[in-house]
Design a protein that fits this description.
The chain has a single domain, classed as Jelly Rolls (Sandwich), CATH 2.60.120.10. The longest helix is centred in the last third of the chain and has 16 residues. It has 275 residues and is mostly beta strands. A hairpin with a 2-residue loop joins strand 19 and strand 20. The N and C termini lie far apart (61 Å). It is built from 1 helix and 25 strands.
């Protein structure tokens, strides 16, 4: 039997309206460098929905809509519309404000948000910027009983054009019933989790169901996922820990209180320009 990563915790998330958050501020060190994983979903939506301008700093924020379209506007000058399967990476750095509006498809909207903290020092206070990647530019690898889309990172020698400030792997996987998916990641990417969008999977003996997040043990080990009579769609997210302090506000993460305070002042100034 192969020695693979085990599940250390199953998270059910905290739902607030249309948003379910799976990482709490008190748990940031457990999933370093990941500081946010949010699932936004709604059905029977008639009008566009989302958040007006608000600010962030000290993070890479990855937006991945899977149903509907997302209109993105930010103070770094990025104004774009993401279709389902596209990717937006916003490096918040010293402070950025933005708004995202979801437009439904047949009454449904669904998207995922992933944040990583930025490395301490100059990088966390860098000039904000945004990058956009079309779905057709993200590699898709077809195997015997699985399809793996490389959102960020590398899988089976196929690399995404998207890069983040922290080494990470972000995969979107479809696995057929009675299937096996096996992956040996970079040995430095010891932190990570699995999220099940639909169906049910088994990870090292732990059964996981739809809309559950499983924290993986911190180890330089492969990951094996199996399905039973029901197939599944799930995400595997792995990264290299930063091993730095985290000072958090509701919208920002930094390695020092000084940088957090400076960035929050920058955000207030940017918000003032919207009034």
């Amino acid at each position: 039997m192969r020695h693979t990563r085990k599940v250390t915790k199953i998270r059910f998330g905290k739902k607030d309206g249309l948003l379910t958050a799976f990482i709490e501020k008190s748990e940031l060190n457990q999933l370093d460098p990941f500081v946010l994983w949010d699932h936004f979903a709604a059905s029977e939506v008639i009008h566009s929905t989302g958040l007006d301008y608000h600010g962030h700093s000290g993070v890479d924020a990855l937006s991945y809509p899977v149903i509907g379209k997302m209109r993105h506007h930010d103070s770094a000058g990025c104004h774009t519309t993401l279709a389902s399967g596209d990717l937006q990476i916003m490096t918040a750095g010293s402070g950025i404000i933005h708004k995202d509006i979801m437009t439904p498809n047949n009454g449904q909207v669904e998207s995922f948000s992933l944040w990583t903290a930025l490395p301490a020092g100059q990088k966390e206070m860098t000039k904000p910027e945004s990058c956009y990647f079309h779905a057709q530019d993200l590699p898709i690898i077809e195997e015997h009983d699985s399809t793996t889309k490389v959102i960020v990172g590398t899988y089976q020698a196929h690399s995404s054009p998207a890069h983040c400030s922290v080494p990470l792997t972000y995969l979107d996987i479809m696995l057929a019933p009675f299937g096996v998916w096996f992956y040996t990641p970079d040995t430095e990417q010891t932190s990570g989790f699995v999220f099940i969008r639909s169906g049910s999977i088994y990870v090292a003996g732990s059964q996981l169901f739809s809309r559950q997040m499983a924290t993986l043990e911190k180890a330089a080990l492969p990951i094996e996922v199996r399905t039973g009579k029901v197939g599944a769609q799930f995400f595997v997210v792995l990264g290299k820990p930063l091993h730095q302090p985290f000072y958090a506000s509701p919208s920002s993460i930094h390695s020092s209180q000084e940088n957090l305070s400076k960035a929050e002042q920058n955000i207030l100034q940017l918000m003032a320009t919207r009034k």
